[in-house]
Amino acid sequence: MKHGFLISCAFAALLAYAPGAFAQKLDRGLSISSMPTFVAKGSWMVGGSANWTFHENENFRFLVADGVNSSGYKVNVSPAVCYMVKDNMGVGLRMGYSRSNLKIDEAGVGVGDIGLDMENYHTLKHTFQVQGIMRNYIPVGNAKKIALFNEVQLGYRFGTRKVVNGAEEKFDGSYGNIRNLALNLCPGIVAFANDHLAVDVNVNMLGLSFGNTDQSHNQVAGASFNSTVMNFQVNILAIGFGLYYYL
Prior knowledge:
The chain is mostly beta strands. It has one helix spanning 2-22, and strands at residues 44-62, 65-86, 89-111, 114-139, 146-165, 172-192, 197-203, 206-217, 221-232, 239-246. It starts with a helix and ends with a strand.
């Protein structure tokens, strides 16, 4: 009887201690509320990124391609605005416009005894994009000059694409409407050049997108293409640079 009483008391003491033990929380110092203030609540972030590339090839040779005569360009503009709803965290809106043009006058592709010639190929694509964004900052040290950040993007993109191949009797053309819904995670690093102007570098590392393209070929035949893409990788070609003003 005495042993039973002692066991009961030990079990009761364990139950009384267990909630406090299990309620303990490991603090790794990543809570926004416990971090130094990098961007204060009530601040605005205004800015964006832009890039432009152009190429022109004359009788160019690359791997299996030979005699390439082509020209093209690609331009991207992405302005953004963000309001800090609390220290080191903000929500906002990002817009985007992209336009690309590629014209191939002639090109030859050969692998062994197999050869393929291309000429008078022209494609033009332009898209618009709107995104809701949320940014979280993790200051590096207490200097308030450099911080890591993650930008969550939920956006919708739409646009058109035109493809023309051949000339005169052998003319071929298609027109497509593009629609895409995507969720992206873009981590990066930001550094202040002065009290208000900052430069950041980010990479689209994780994303999930759903796309649809309706196509009309020679204004006669119709087609549709649906896609679902999920990526989890660091793409060097997807690294972006932005210039932002905090006020």
